[in-house]
Every structure is written in structure tokens, then in C-alpha cells.
Amino acid sequence: MFQKVHEVTSLHNGTVTNVYVDSTAYVYEWEPLLSIENKNKETIVISFGASGIITQLNVKSGDQVSDNTIIAVIEDDMQLSGSD
Predict the structure, then answer these.
(1) Of all helices (H) and strands (E), which one includes residue 74?
(2) Residue 52 backbone class (left: φ over 0; alpha: ψ -120 to 50; beta: rest)
(3) Domains of the chain, with CATH numbers?
(4) Which residues face 77 on adjacent strands?
(5) Is 16 exposed, middle or buried (0-12, 13-18, 19+ CB in 10 A)?
(6) What CA–CA distance (Å, rounded) separates 79 from 72?
(7) Cα separation of 25 and 54, whole Å?
(8) Which residues of the chain have pLDDT under 70?
């Protein structure tokens, strides 16, 4: 069963280096949302497996995040795609 609203959480600790989307933007499945630099100076790109509208964007460039930080909320458009 599909969820209508998704909380996108960080699985990494680090600093947000880039935010590629705006709040209220439409995003496609697996589209990069933001990138995080961890303590080893590795860049991790965060994406999510649902398309829809961002209803909350809780971080900005320069913010510190830890694992399980809710970074965004996406309202799913409920459209099946080729990878569903």
C-alpha cells in the first residue's frame, strides 16, 4: 500500500552543503534533494523514492544534521513510475 505523505530523514551526520530543491517544489522519484558532507569530507547526495510536492523543507545550506533528522516532507502524487 502506498503512503500519501513521506518524511524524508537523513541517514547521515554532517553539514548540509547544497539544497537542490525549494519548499513547495515538485520532485521526481530519486531526484537529488540535497547533499551532506560528513566528518570524513565525503559528499552524500540525499534522494527519495517517491515523486510529489515538497510540503516541508526543514534544512538549508550550512545546517548540521544527524541520522533520523527529518529533512523534508513529500506529499506523494500517487503516480506509478517505471521503477515502482
Answers:
(1) strand 70-76
(2) left
(3) 5-76 (2.40.50.100)
(4) none
(5) buried
(6) 20
(7) 6
(8) 1-3, 80-84
**How does the average pLDDT of the chain come out, rounded?**
91
At residue 77, the pLDDT reads 85
pLDDT of residue 81: 62
**Cβ distance 8 to 23 under 8 Å?**
no
HEC letters along 1-67 = CCCCEEEEECCCCEEEEEECCCCCCEECCCCEEEEEECCCCCEEEEECCCCEEEEEECCCCCCEECC
Task: Find the angle CA(31)-CA(63)-CA(60) to the nearest 5 degrees.
Answer: 50
Name the nearest CA neighbour of 19 among 68, 67, 54.
Answer: 54
The residue written with cell numbers 558532507 in the block is: 37
Q: Look up the pTM and report it.
A: 0.84
